[in-house]
């Protein structure tokens, strides 16, 4: 039974696998200081709900249909949504962690995390503290360093969104020629035959 004297952390859960989603919802609702206020199986649905409603913490699977958990986290942050985000990752790739930290999200756990650890992680991010899976953090530190400069990263991120050169130039306050130069230099560093290949590699490595 929840103690009415204790603050209740309002949690949103987004997970596309029904069994895991139901288990997470049941587990978190059993915590005396938490209540699950909304449950989703798609990233875009979770994002739309969080844009329209108040919540304290969003627990997002990183491989949701519609949008990944990290994509949702980034879009929520840019929209000024205050809910803290915990990313759950089944593959636990170092590049996913680097992307999450760039958003930044406060919590990142593998799906193998225990229920008690997930609950404690939610409490930590609710309090403004960060929790990162220690094994994943070690793997990320050992991974290949990003060779791209900040402007190259910014350009490739907008290329990944499908923006044409003139719109990228306007958004970043650059000339179209400068944008093309950044794309060319990024392709050269990454080894991509074209900008699409460069974006694909940069995403796989967690550089954008």
Element order, helices and strands? EHEHEHEHEHEHHHHH
Domain count: 2
Low-confidence stretches: none
Count of distinct strands: 6
* Total number of helices: 10
Head-to-tail CA distance between termini:
44 Å
Q: How would you describe this protein?
A:
The structure is a single chain. By secondary structure, the protein is α/β, with parallel strands linked by helices. It has 2 domains: 9-142, 3-Layer(aba) Sandwich (Rossmann fold); 150-205, Arc Repressor Mutant, subunit A, CATH 1.10.10.10. The chain has 10 helices and 6 strands, in the order E-H-E-H-E-H-E-H-E-H-E-H-H-H-H-H. It has helices spanning 18-29, 43-52, 69-78, 94-102, 115-126, 134-142, 150-160, 165-172, 176-190, 195-205, and strands at residues 9-14, 34-40, 57-61, 84-89, 107-110, 131-132. It has a 6-stranded parallel beta sheet with strand order 2-1-3-4-5-6, with helices on both faces. Helix 3 links the parallel strand 3 (57-61) and strand 4 (84-89). The longest helix is centred in the C-terminal third of the chain and has 15 residues, at 176-190. The termini are far apart. The model has no long low-confidence stretch (mean pLDDT 89).
